[in-house]
TrEMBL record:
Coiled coil: none annotated. The lineage of its organism: Bacteria, Pseudomonadati, Pseudomonadota, Gammaproteobacteria, Oceanospirillales. This is Transcriptional regulator. Residues 207-302 form the MucB/RseB C-terminal domain. Residues 14-187 form the MucB/RseB N-terminal domain. Belongs to the RseB family. Gene3D superfamilies: Lipoprotein localisation LolA/LolB/LppX, MucB/RseB, C-terminal domain. GO terms for cellular component: outer membrane-bounded periplasmic space. InterPro entries: MucB/RseB_C, MucB/RseB_C_sf, MucB/RseB_N, MucB_RseB. It is found in: Periplasm. Keywords: Periplasm, Signal.
Length: 314
């Protein structure tokens, strides 16, 4: 009985750390250099984050490869890239910290086992390690290093079921709680072409009878569902509070373009699966940080919605 009580207490404490983490990433002022990626490819990014009058300001500058820059002021985003084209980014994926996904961690303990796993020094600061292990085979686990003073995420390892680290992000240096002038969030216009757009806050949405998977792992809920979004017929995103995947639907104008793709890059799985409807062929693409078997099962469950067929027949 004492062991059960102690284990439950540690789980509750771990959940408390994760709740603090979700607030710290959005409410703290911080500045640092972040290294992230997998053994095959590492990226380096400078991050500035501050809050002015309850509005988040964020500036991300890629330090490897071509200079890319993403600036966010509340829901307004500016993206810059060298050359003659503008780059638009998914706000939930432009920042590798994925802070937009942490607004509601929900019933996380139903899908993960949470525990504390000691302390370690990261980027010159002491951290509390929180271990997040999946309760099923449909998602990965995480080891999270949270700043002892603020709970800001300083390192994250995305871990396969056999313990292999698939992806890591870690601050090489970081300053927390500092004052930053708004001028530090101005874009660098020289040599860059800018694209500006707004995005809505990530939030759960109700399911519809339009394009959607027939199966997703328990705990994954749709956010920011979009039909006829941009160049895609449908764009859907799902998250369980930590992991996320996206589903894209496109119409194939030429049935001979039909193809199947199965690819894994570190923690990211990508599946291309074509389906045939009464009015032609459609391409289903699933991309996300989930196991390959999960992405395959999701893609196979997407079918042409009955509502679409009825509308086109009427």
């Amino acid at each position: 009985m004492l062991l059960v009580v102690a284990t439950t207490g540690l789980g509750n404490e771990a959940r408390s750390w994760l709740d603090r983490m979700s607030h710290a990433a959005k409410e703290q002022n911080y500045q640092g250099v972040l290294i992230y990626g997998a053994p095959e490819r590492w990226e380096t990014m400078a991050i500035n984050h501050a809050v002015y009058d309850d509005t988040e300001y964020e500036k991300l500058v890629h330090l490897t490869g071509e200079r890319r820059e993403v600036i966010r002021r509340g829901h307004a985003i500016s993206c810059s890239h060298p050359g003659d084209h503008a780059v638009r980014v998914n706000p939930t994926s432009s920042n590798p910290l994925n802070t937009e996904l942490w607004r509601d961690l929900g019933d996380l303990e139903s899908w993960y086992r949470l525990s504390l796993a000691g302390e370690e020094r990261i980027a010159g600061r002491m951290t509390q390690i929180v271990r997040v292990l999946p309760r099923d085979q449909y998602r990965f686990g995480y080891d999270l290093w949270l700043d002892r003073d603020t709970a800001l995420l300083l390192r994250s390892d995305l871990v396969r079921h056999d313990g292999v680290v698939l992806e890591r992000l870690q601050f090489a240096n970081v300053a927390i709680g500092i004052e930053m002038a708004k001028s530090e969030f101005e874009p660098d216009y020289e040599g860059h072409h800018l694209a500006r757009h707004n995005h809505a806050e990530v939030s759960p949405v109700a399911a519809t009878n339009a394009w959607q998977p027939g199966w997703v792992p328990s705990g994954f809920a749709p956010v920011n569902r979009g039909q006829s979004h941009g160049r895609h017929l449908a764009t859907l995103m799902y998250t369980d509070g930590l992991a996320a995947f996206s589903v894209f639907v496109d119409r194939l104008s030429n049935p001979e373009q039909s193809r199947t793709l199965r690819q894994q890059w570190g923690a990211t799985a990508a599946i291309v699966h074509d389906v045939l409807g009464d009015d032609g062929s459609y391409r289903i693409t699933v991309v996300g940080e989930v196991p390959m078997q999960t992405a395959e099962k999701i893609a196979a469950s997407v079918s042409v919605p009955a509502l679409l067929t009825l509308q086109e027949e009427s």
